[in-house]
Amino acid sequence: MSTLKHLRNQIASYEKSNLKSSIWQIINTLGPFVFLWFLAYKSLWISYFLTLAICMIAAAFLIRTFIIFHDCCHQSFFTNKKANVILGTITGVLTLVPFEQWKHSHSIHHATSGNLDKRGTGDVWAMTVNEYKEASSITKFLYRLYRNPFVMFVLGPIYIFLIAYRFNTKNARKKERMNTYLTNFLIVGLVGILCLVIRWKNFLLIQGPIFLISGSLGIWLFYVQHQFEDSYFEPQKEWKYIKAALEGSSYYKLPKILQWITGNIGFHHIHHLSPRVPNYYLEDVYKNHAPLQKVPTITLSTSLESLKFRLWNEESKTFVSFNDAKRLEREKSKETELTSPLKTES
Question: Is the whole model's pTM more than 0.90, yes or no?
Fold first, then answer.
């Protein structure tokens, strides 16, 4: 563990934003997004298939916009705190996420990721095998519904980004509440202006696909970075922050173009180890520190396996499917029968 702490100290030197890099990322992200949105509008009079193709590319840049928003929430995109708040609020309007609300819940996610006793805020709902076994029928139904790919990646973005983020949480602080109101006001204003200028049908034909594609892929990225087979989950008394970061957050090895679009978020173990490192430094940290290259690694193809993982098995410390959980339960029942006193010779 001392070696891991030493590694954490080494990475600290990267926890400082570079103003030129940050500004360039704004230019090469928001610039193309706005241009592609305008191009999609112009293409409506040519072919809607062309519009959809442009919207797919625009959605990729909206994902990259969210990475900027994400860094602002960690106060890592700019050195100046106010600059992070301003840009975070602006990019929050574009991604439909209130800055202060998400900043708060996401900080809790970082502080509790992999902690079995502190689940429920800013994370994906994950039950253990024993919890699922003892749950009521309605809870089991809701959990199965929640973990269904269609619900999570298609209906999920609609509920989370369009509905859930429009309201404050129960114990939200004043600053958080006001930021949510401001974000909602700016979203309504921006949408209203666009609908007046280009008509609401045209707006929906463009923004609809961009929203659905970017929202689904965004949730997928968040899901797959912690929901891999041999992830890390421990009760509070055994939970360790550094181990949770390195073993419970994956290195999502993506093709270079996708790595760029996703703002290096695939180096998620490094991000969890040191959230203050700007996204444009994550690859450098990975390349310059050998221990960070020996972590759970998933690729585009292997990441699809995570769709079958539903429950955390505390005994094997792995994610298992519902069918695997049933099989394990049957095997335990057989072992119990074989060792039962009733089975001994009379």
Answer: yes
